[in-house]
Design goal:
The structure holds two protein chains of two kinds.
Chain A lengths: L1 H14 L3 E5 L8 H6 L4 E3 L4 H13 L3 E7 H7 L1 H10 L5 E5 L17 H6 L5 E3 L4 H11 L6 E5 L20 E4 L4 E5 L4 H13 L4 E5 L2 E3 L3 H9 L3 E9 L4 H11 L5 E7 L10 H7 L4 H18 L3
Parallel strand pairs in A: 1-2, 1-3, 3-4, 4-6, 5-6, 8-9, 8-11, 11-12
Antiparallel strand pairs in A: 5-10, 7-9
Chain B lengths: L6 H22 L4 H5 L2 H11 L14 E4 L5 H10 L5 H5 L30 H14 L6 E6 L6 H12 L5 E7 L2 E2 L2 E2 H4 L5 H7 L3 E6 L3 H8 L10 E6 L22 H13 L1
Parallel strand pairs in B: 1-2, 2-3, 3-7, 6-7
Antiparallel strand pairs in B: 4-5
The chains are: A alpha/beta, B alpha/beta.
Chain lengths: 313, 275
């Protein structure tokens, strides 16, 4: 996804000298093609995230189309108050690109993990949040971001993400994307958990369930109409995200469901509320939190079985 | 209204701004009169001699920008913008009243001449750097001025921005330090010593001028010669007096917070009228 970002920005920057990439000294070799094509439109501000966001705001106020790139925690937490005031209060079209959402940087440790960012960014008035779930979504959403007029947080994972969608036709900021239409359950995932949700659905189908899979790549504003629509014909809704269970996609969806009077089963899958549960690579840490297709599908099966027994069916 | 006053006219304008600033603060029971009084001459010289801003073309991309980074001194800015014809009377009347339009910290509104929302300290210089970088990139003649409090320099973001400005040779950028040596809980040298302040900026690659921040001649001389050095950002360290102009407010921390009561207001008015 990172390479997709750089390619799209380079293509536009060649035509529009007002497109800039700012980084706080992150992205070794990643930006080489951009820098070669548009050297004056790339600024490495050094390891100074507060200044980077402030500078981005000043440039935006002077008509520039600015992307700030660094790791999720340094962007959304180190520079939070600059995002709040300089970007959101001023309603500027600055794009904040956080790389390594969730526990992507496994062995780098808690300092480099981004597990609270969706929650924090969601509370900022006027902030739009997107977390592409595959390269097709990434390409479509980043292309749309170029002309997006408001503050935008783009949460990216790594570079080797599997392709889920067959086309970009239905990928649009603010709209959920339907990956599979089922009949009884709905799985809603964002970002890196989209491929996991697809696998979960595959396992559940073998157990004679027929789950829908929805990609909520836009966490804010949430596609509430789509969530209500799918909830209305599902006996159970499950959310999956590589983020704290507090305040992220699951919380957002639950708010929508509760307000819509949904009475079915609901469960969130995400990272438990603790730092440094285990030391390991991305996959190992995800597994420790139960973020893998095997655990999630068995947990969903258990919840549904319990419900069935409770209701004496 | 003319925007190019001579020195005696500037002195007279500074007096008017100081009186009116006290009036709106007193009327609304607002704080920060001391912080406002220490920047009046700086604002007067900037808005009535230096800044290239047209009230009938206020979004011109080549205009000079002024950012009040120490946003709490905004009463003085509002009044200056009003006398300069950039802010309407109705807006000024909306200062610190319910259903009003002006708070105790500025909110960006170009139709009132306010370039940036400030109040949280340490934001003005980074944003000014972004504007100055853009102006340089666009070959625009625009210059970016930002007025920073001395206590505000405690914020690390300023020092990040100082490195950036010198690295990118932003000679269209001017930082002004309101060095009144009093911050929220006491004297700057007792809380977090800034001295030797000029050396610190110089070592960061800035061109430094130290002036009496209440001396209009001195301010004019330095502002009219910017950049002091090509390819270097300029910092003007303005030695000022918190509460300047009213003897019982000068150099007294109390007036960071206190609003004059009716008796104090009358006494201060007399002094400002006589000076």
């Amino acid at each position: 996804m990172r390479n997709v970002l750089v390619k799209i920005l380079r293509d536009r920057a060649l035509l529009d000298k007002n497109v800039f990439i700012l980084t706080s000294d992150l992205g070794f070799k990643l930006f080489d093609s951009f820098r070669e094509a548009c050297p004056r439109q790339f600024i490495n501000l050094g390891i100074a995230e507060q200044n980077m966001v402030g500078v981005a705001a000043g440039m935006s106020l002077s008509g520039k189309n600015v992307y700030c790139y660094t790791m999720v925690p340094f962007l959304t937490m180190r520079a939070l108050e600059f995002i709040r005031i300089d970007i959101c209060y001023h309603k500027l079209n600055v794009k904040l690109v956080g790389v390594g959402g969730g526990v992507y940087y496994g062995f780098e440790g808690v300092t480099h993990h981004g597990v609270e960012d969706l929650s924090i960014m969601r509370t900022l008035p006027g902030m739009t949040i997107i977390a592409p779930g595959d390269p097709i979504e990434a390409a479509a959403l980043i292309e749309q971001s170029l002309d997006y007029p408001l503050p935008l947080y783009i949460r990216l994972g790594g570079n080797n993400d599997p392709v889920i969608h067959q086309s970009a036709k239905q990928i649009s900021i603010g709209k959920g994307a339907i990956v599979h239409k089922g009949r009884d359950l709905t799985l809603m995932a964002t970002g890196s958990m989209l491929p996991v949700a697809v696998e979960v659905a595959g396992i559940l189908r073998e157990k004679r369930y027929d789950p829908s899979v929805i990609s909520l790549h836009t966490v804010k504003p949430l596609d509430e109409a789509l969530i209500r629509q799918y909830a209305s014909h599902s006996k159970a809704v499950f959310t999956i995200e590589e983020h704290s269970l507090i305040g992220g996609l699951g919380t957002a969806v639950s708010e929508t469901l509760f307000e819509a009077g949904y009475h079915g089963i609901f469960k969130k899958f995400g990272l438990s509320d603790e730092y440094g549960k285990v030391v390991g690579c991305n996959t190992f840490i995800r597994n420790a939190h139960g973020l893998n297709p095997g655990y999630i599908s068995s947990e969903i099966h258990r919840v549904l079985e319990n419900d069935r027994k409770k209701n004496g069916i | 209204m003319t925007t190019c006053l001579n020195v005696p006219e500037l002195a007279e304008m500074a007096k008017r701004i100081r009186r009116k600033t006290m009036e709106i603060i007193h009327k609304t029971g607002s704080p920060h009169i001391g912080s406002s009084f220490s920047i009046i001459e700086i604002l007067t010289v900037l808005y009535f001699r230096i800044l290239s801003i047209k009230s009938d073309d206020r979004e011109n991309t080549d205009r000079d920008r002024f950012i009040l980074s120490k946003g709490h001194a905004c009463a003085a800015l509002y009044v200056t913008l009003f006398f300069r014809g950039l802010m309407m009377q109705e807006s000024l009347d909306g200062f610190a009243v319910d259903q009003g339009c002006l708070e105790h910290h500025p909110t960006k509104n170009l139709s009132s001449g306010i370039e940036l929302s400030t109040g949280s300290l340490g934001h003005g210089l980074p944003v000014a750097c972004g504007m100055a970088f853009s102006a340089q990139y666009d070959h625009s003649p625009a210059r970016i001025f930002t007025l920073i409090g001395d206590g505000e320099l405690n914020e690390g973001s300023n020092w990040e921005a100082m490195l950036f400005a010198a690295h990118w040779k932003l000679d269209n950028l001017v930082a002004i330090i309101d060095y009144n040596r009093i911050q929220a809980l006491g004297r700057t040298e007792e809380i977090l010593d800034l001295d030797p302040l000029p050396d610190k900026w110089r070592s960061f690659g800035w061109e430094v001028a130290v002036v009496d921040g209440h001396d209009i001649d001195e301010l004019l001389k330095v502002f009219e010669n910017i950049p002091i050095h090509a390819q270097r950002p300029t910092v003007i360290i303005a030695n000022t007096i918190k509460g300047k102009g009213v003897c019982f407010m000068e150099n007294d921390l109390l007036w960071h917070y206190r609003c004059p009561d009716d008796e104090e207001y009358a006494k201060a008015t007399c002094e400002l009228n006589e000076s």
